[in-house]
Amino acid sequence: MQKGKKLSQNFENLDTWKKAMELCLFCYELTKKFPLEEKFGLTNQLRRAGVSAPSNIAEGYSRKSAKEVCYFIEIAIGSVYEMMTQISIAYSLHCISKEEKEKFYNLASEVISLCGGFIKYKKGNHNAPSVPKPKSGVRLPKL
């Protein structure tokens, strides 16, 4: 890090981190409505994965080597996919609406796409395929 530069001028300016924070906060908003019996189950799991995504992006940003940066960004991507699974479970349990699930999936897709672009940039191979991402307007399973 350059001398005289504040930490907040670094990772907090990343679009990837900002979008992951938006997803995390939406996760907290959704889980507020979950049944009390899910407090230590699905609610806790979702929130932990939600916090993990922007946290790993920030930690990766602090690393010196591209390999280390990419490692943490890949962990963030894994956390987003974990959240998507848990959101699908929440939908199946009628904890959230179809619209909320779709909004979550769209935000998650944006985070994954931004992370994939960040990885490509750090690896210096701008023609490499990005991390596979879910398609926009994900079709929900029929119950």
TrEMBL record:
InterPro entries on file: 23S_rRNA-intervening_sequence, 23S_rRNA_IVS_sf
Pfam families: 23S_rRNA_IVP
Annotated signal peptide: none
Record-linked CDD domains: 23S_rRNA_IVP_like
SUPFAM superfamilies: IVS-encoded protein-like
Protein name, UniProt field: Four helix bundle protein
The organism of origin for this protein: Candidatus Berkelbacteria bacterium CG10_big_fil_rev_8_21_14_0_10_43_13
Phylogenetic classification of the source organism: Bacteria, Candidatus Berkelbacteria
